[in-house]
Amino acid sequence: MFTKMSLLLAALVFSVSALAAENHYRLGVNGLACPFCAYGIEKRLNKIDGVTEVRVDIGDSVVQVTLKEGNTLTEEQARRAVDEAGFTLRSYAEVDGETGGGNAE
Amino acid sequence: MKKMGKRFAYSTLGLAIALTLLGCAGGAINWNQEPPYSRSLAWGEKGSGPGQFNDPTGIAVTADEVYIADARNSRIQVFDKQGKFRRAFGGDILGRPMNMDIAGNRLYVPDYFKDVIHVFTLAGEYCEAIKTDDGLTSPGGLAVRDDGTLLIADTYGQRVVHLAPDGEVLRSWAGTGIGAGDFNYPTDIAIAPDGGFYVADGYNDRIQQFDPDGEFVRKWGGPFAMNIYGPFKGWFTTVTSVAVGLEGSVYAADFYNDRIQKFTAEGDYLTAFGSEPANAGHTAMAVAVDNEGTVWSVNFADNRVEKWQPD
Lengths: 105, 311
What we know:
Largest sheet of chain A: 5 strands, antiparallel
Protein name (chain A): HMA domain-containing protein
Oligomer: heterodimer
Largest sheet of chain B: 4 strands, antiparallel
Keywords (chain A): Signal
GO molecular function, one term (chain A): metal ion binding
Number of helices of chain A: 3
Domain HMA (chain A): 23-90
Number of strands of chain A: 5
Largest interface: A-B, 13 and 25 residues
Number of helices of chain B: 1
Helix content of chain B: under 10%
Signal peptide (chain A): 1-20
């Protein structure tokens, strides 16, 4: 019983630390309502090393990007990806933890 | 005083002429307009189960089935015409399927993420992936000609490509801009009865028509069809799909205006119809017309399929 509890606790600690180790970013992009543009941005962000998830919140024109531990998204990288997709980066911010919402890639 | 009256008369006349020109340029002034269509059937909701959708982005119809590109679920779903789920396929192959076409017992699916055209049998068996010699860049829509060649709206490639089934590029119409034959993120193509074709010139907010030899014929959508968008009759705010129906009439999905607009083959406005979004976003994403003239569309914001018939 004790062993089982220990294993469960260890797994929980591991998963929380793994989640905490991810890096999250929130990008504001103007005019993100039609899938042709939203998918264009997703496609370009997904090509960046370490990106594990891209969420597009069409209503708020916000893109949330998650990168695995050790990988970061610079403002310049974000701007370039958004520019290549034909849009303009309105804002860039590194945020903590699970960003939630939107449509997962 | 008399001078003032004259000036007022001239101003009014000038304004009337300007408005008429603008109206004509947008296709709104047409004495043969039709009543709108009514929605006679709808099904679907957000999700990943059978009959649920996560971003429906394309539609194609046969005599007895409706094919939906279920983009974020990376699959094709097939229904009968009463909305009953029949089958799904493509889940292990597709990235983001977009505006599709059916020809000769084959379903042609442009993949926005994988930059290829997937070909399936209508039963769902995978046939092949068609690539171009020079590479596609997010193809958003296509149409298959009677001779089996493909016309592809290569959306991020800013061009229309005429392709042999083996991937050889036969011709390419390229150029970003607002002039005749230029494109601004083309999203879809439909074949006219004479073998010519219409291009949904997405972010130019217009339709462009080409003859069977690929020569530019006309363009319409807003004043002078030069990327002026708006909610008026015959205007567009991003065209995301185009289809040709009976007698060559043209149907265009006018995304940000939440409506399907119907035109004559020459671009004269006939009618418009659509659904107000129940959720955030916009509804009129893709349109198809069956051989009875019934119009089918996918409602993007509400994850639904909708059937439309004339009043």
